[in-house]
Amino acid sequence: MESLRDVRRIMEHEVKKGSCPLMFERIEFGASPFQTITSEEKLDEVLVYLLRLKSFQQYAEKTVINNVYMDLDIFCKKSQFKRSHSIMEREGIYSRMQRYKKKLNPDYGNRLCLETVRCIFTLPKVEMNKYKIVHEGRETYAFIMSNKYILGLFTYCEVASKSVFSGSVEYGHLLEHEQKIALLENVKDVLFQALLLDDVEYGNSEMSANFYTIYCLE
User: Fold this and answer.
1) What is the DSSP annotation of 84-146?
2) pLDDT digit string (tens) for 184-195?
3) Alpha helices by DSSP H, 17-77
4) Low-confidence residues of the chain, pLDDT below 50?
């Protein structure tokens, strides 16, 4: 993984080329950030949802190309993160995740869980009007970002999710075993990760999107 300094330098260069200067601010844990995956069928359902396939393909609008997904090489040894530009690419990721799932052989007896954290992004108020549009009769925003810029935002989200430490977030609402997961104290493997930028919320000059991680626990 590139250092954040290198990532920042690349993103600054992309802004000069025209990318929207949306910046990562922080991650937040919601009221119920962890869901136990208790069966292979449930795991497949989660993967299908995140990849917008099968019954969830209805959610795959044009902005689905902004989503960043974990993918694997043909031997399921080396992971990489990338955007997908077609349903065929997402189906390919799903197929490789099926092979990776068999390789990891996860324990469905409370040893597999889905973590959902909210990634908060900000944009200077003076920049907001540049990206304001009206879509289907309502006011919203269209942030134009290059591939390198979006992957840079993903890197910030990934690093933040791995860098949580006691006192850095509000843990009062988390159970003890959930705190351990957040701190990566009992995490064995990461089965899958995704940042879904096709499902965002706006408010108070901030934009937020969900960052998902499927953990195999020890």
Assistant:
1) --SHHHHHHHHHHHHHHHHHH---TTT-EEEEEEEEEEE--HHHHGGGEEEETTEEEE-----
2) 999 999 999 999
3) 40-50
4) none
* CB-based contacts of 77, cutoff 8 Å, min separation 6: none
Cα R_g (the chain), whole angstroms = 18
Does the pTM of the predicted model rise above 0.90?
yes
Task: Collapse the DSSP code of 185 into the 3-class scheme (helix H, G, I; strand E, B; otherwise coil) and give the result.
Answer: coil
Neighbours of 180 (CB within 10 A): 15
Rounded Cα distance, 208 and 28, in Å = 10
SS3 166: coil
Provide, rounded to the nearest whole percent, the portion of the chain with pLDDT above 90: 63
Residues in the chain: 218
